[in-house]
Design a protein that fits this description.
- This protein is mainly α and 63 residues long.
- 59% of the residues lie in helices and 0% in strands.
- The chain has two helices and no strands.
- The longest helix has 27 residues, at 29-55.
């Protein structure tokens, strides 16, 4: 993989891990945010896919 590829999941830096440990958290803020975004994207994808599969493609008014 290219070092210029910024879409790769990045590991939390030492400071993030230490801050999470001090706060007694199981995961860092970065990991928590990644999980939240992945879940929201999966739910949104399911809603869109379910809507199109049930009703067909979106139609333009007047056609």
């Amino acid at each position: 993989m290219s070092p210029l590829d910024r879409t790769v999941r990045r590991r939390p830096v030492t400071g993030e891990a230490q801050k999470a440990a001090r706060r007694g958290l199981a995961e860092t803020a970065r990991e928590s945010l990644q999980h939240t975004v992945r879940t929201a994207a999966a739910l949104a994808e399911g809603v869109v896919a379910g809507h199109r599969g049930r009703d067909g493609p979106p139609r333009r008014p007047g056609h």
